[in-house]
Amino acid sequence: MHRKKDKQADVMDKDTAGREVSIPSTEQFLIRSKENRQYKILLGIPDVPPPPSGFPVIYFLDANAIFGTMFEAVRIQSRRPERTGIVPALVVGIGYHIEKPFSPERYYDFTLTPPASELYSRREGTDRPEYGGAEQFLQFIDGELKPLIESRFKIDKDRQAIFGHSLGGLFVLQTLFTKPYAFNTYIAGSPSIHWNKSLLLDAEQKFISSLENDKHHIRLLITVGELEKFHKSGMNANAKELAERLLRLDQNNFHVEFKEFEDEGHVSVVPALINRAVRFALSEKQGT
Q1: Is residue 155 within 8 Å of residue 132, measured between CB atoms?
Q2: Is 283 exposed, middle or buried, given 0-12, 13-18 or 19+ CB atoms closer than 10 A?
Q3: Is 266 a catalytic residue?
Q4: Which is the most buried residue in 170, 194, 230, 268, by most CB within 10 A?
Q5: Which tens digit of pLDDT belongs to each residue from 118-169?
Q6: How far is the C-alpha of 186 from the C-alpha of 138, rounded, in Å?
Q7: Is the pTM for the entire model greater than 0.85?
Q8: Half-sphere exposure of 53 (CA within 13 A, CB side)
């Protein structure tokens, strides 16, 4: 005999219907840099007390697009560190005061110079955004944002990572090569090396020369999607060549990994990249 269906089960709660979805243990605020540029900062805060050494931190770019994916990847995997090997961490996303996933301002913040690659010149035409503000952007992150975060939370300063994809990946490499002490872990996904390959190569050579006497422990992950090999920029080849050069330097104070994600393109690779990045940055083994 079938039980009569409860009519109330088909009726939405009028008090909750239409409300926006929010992510627990997160917050956001706007901040204006000393260069008078405004950023939206999104925080994912662990729901456990910090360890004696403080929380590891992952700073990442393009937060408007990937904050939810990054925070949930950390939150889910760090619930059972004894099983996953992933420890709780503070997630700090750097974005812009817009509703769209990406802002044209990223071109200025993530680059050191105008594009040397014709790809960008053709694509943007006469309406190209500004370029060349990466030094000021790094100064904001390292000299303004990080001290603010450290004043609010107990942070493990020896376990701070920076993550970026595409132009953000280029920014990560530029930061590594020009100011390697800013972070301990660098994650460059599908880096736009073609933007100004010769400039980055010069910075790479100076970085390599400094490694001989450098005792600072640095970890670098470079990734691409397999299908990006069809990109006119030569993205895969550029990333692989860079990784191969740096892998020859893999030593006690500089560890390098490279990963190509099978059957993934420039955009579809992002969730897989974030998952790998979380493991690379927050594995318990890295804290020993």
Answers
A1: no
A2: middle
A3: yes
A4: 170
A5: 666 545 445 677 899 999 999 999 999 999 999 999 999 999 999 999 999 9
A6: 14
A7: yes
A8: 13
**Nearest-5° Cα angle at 118, 115 to 121:** 70
* Side-chain-side CA neighbours of residue 120 (13 Å): 17
Find the catalytic residue in 204, 228, 260, 264: 228
Residues of the chain with pLDDT under 70: 1-11, 118-127, 214, 250, 252, 285-288
In a domain, 46, yes or no: yes
Identify the CATH number of the domain in which residue 164 sits.
3.40.50.1820
**The predicted structure's pLDDT at residue 130:** 87
User: What is the b/e burial string over 159-189, where b = at least 16 CB atoms within 10 angstroms of the residue's CB?
Assistant: bbbbbbbbbbbbbbbbbbbeebebbbbbbbb
Q: How far apart are CA 174 and CA 154, in angstroms?
A: 28
207: containing domain: 24-287
CA–CA dist 71, 76 (Å, integer): 9
Place of tokens 């992952």: 58
Residue 281 token pair: 């940055």
pLDDT for 6 equals 52
The number of folded domains in the chain is: 1
Q: Of these residues, 165, 194, 255, 266, which one is catalytic?
A: 266
Count the neighbouring beta carbons within 10 Å of the beta carbon of residue 141: 22
Does the active-site annotation cover 233?
A: no
